[in-house]
Amino acid sequence: MTAYQPIAAPGSELNAQDFKRVAAFIEQHSGIKTPPSKRLLVEGRLRRRARASGFASVAEYCDHVFADPASLATEAELLVNALTTNKTDFFREPKHFDYLTATVLPALVAAGERRLRIWSAGCSTGAEPYTLAMLLDQFCMSQACGYGILATDIDTEVLETARRGIYPAPMVEPVPALLRRRYLMTARGDRAEVRMVPELRAAIGFGQLNFMDPRYGVGDPMHVIFCRNVLIYFDQETQEKVIRRLLDCLLPGGHLFLGHSETIAGMDLPVRTVAGTVFQKV
């Protein structure tokens, strides 16, 4: 059977060969699969990257990037930044946060834990770790305990946005009014933007992490890991490898939260399902 070849549409700047080269690089570097159906999306992002780099066309940009290993190494991080998807919202999939605050956190404190460690893996522009920080701060004030949040992503540009903690005002509308008053302030006098208060920003450590790394050097094991709506971009073999590496960073009895559309069906993992796509390490 002849293998399917993505065909460039009339007027397209991204030909089949360049699409295959880009897709192969992204999968090898980040584990993310890019099917032919994403060609137009890839082309648009490559066009912006080509213009920013001073190239007249996507083809010229691709010829430069893939000309030799040195050129690819120089452009690799920026190319990944351009092609990764960064969909995120505050309080996204709220049932997870309900379960965290009603069940997981009280159980940790009842077991004697006095400093809670949580990792937002694939944090994008920061909505998830800041959501966690608001909830952890509220909980720990009432329980006289401490907390720390690690937030990682492969994309260095979204990490910089997350570190700044500045967002368009409409983006934070899902944040409950009480938490908005406590943790958000007007950004530099611009009422169209809000910024996370300094103490919340200080509670989160941001860093770059590639899920394809053989080990995740995150320091002390975590009590809770959120890795939501990330695995959907990987094939099942890669998904299982990533989950196993995440579990290596999780304390026994710790909780792993995946996205509602993600599944571990068919995987032999040391976890039990406790609620929806919430899993406890055993």
UniProtKB/TrEMBL annotation:
It catalyses: L-glutamyl-[protein] + S-adenosyl-L-methionine = [protein]-L-glutamate 5-O-methyl ester + S-adenosyl-L-homocysteine. It is an enzyme of class 2 (transferase). Keywords: Methyltransferase, S-adenosyl-L-methionine, Transferase. InterPro entries: Bact_Chemotaxis_MeTrfase (IPR050903), Chemotaxis_MeTrfase_CheR (IPR026024), CheR_C (IPR022642), CheR_MeTrfase (IPR000780), CheR_N (IPR022641), CheR_N_sf (IPR036804), SAM-dependent_MTases_sf (IPR029063). S-adenosyl-L-methionine binds at N86, T88, R92, E128, D153, R228, N229. Its EC number is 2.1.1.80. Gene3D superfamilies: Chemotaxis receptor methyltransferase CheR, N-terminal domain, Vaccinia Virus protein VP39. Residues 7-282 form the CheR-type methyltransferase domain. Methylation of the membrane-bound methyl-accepting chemotaxis proteins (MCP) to form gamma-glutamyl methyl ester residues in MCP. This is Chemotaxis protein methyltransferase.
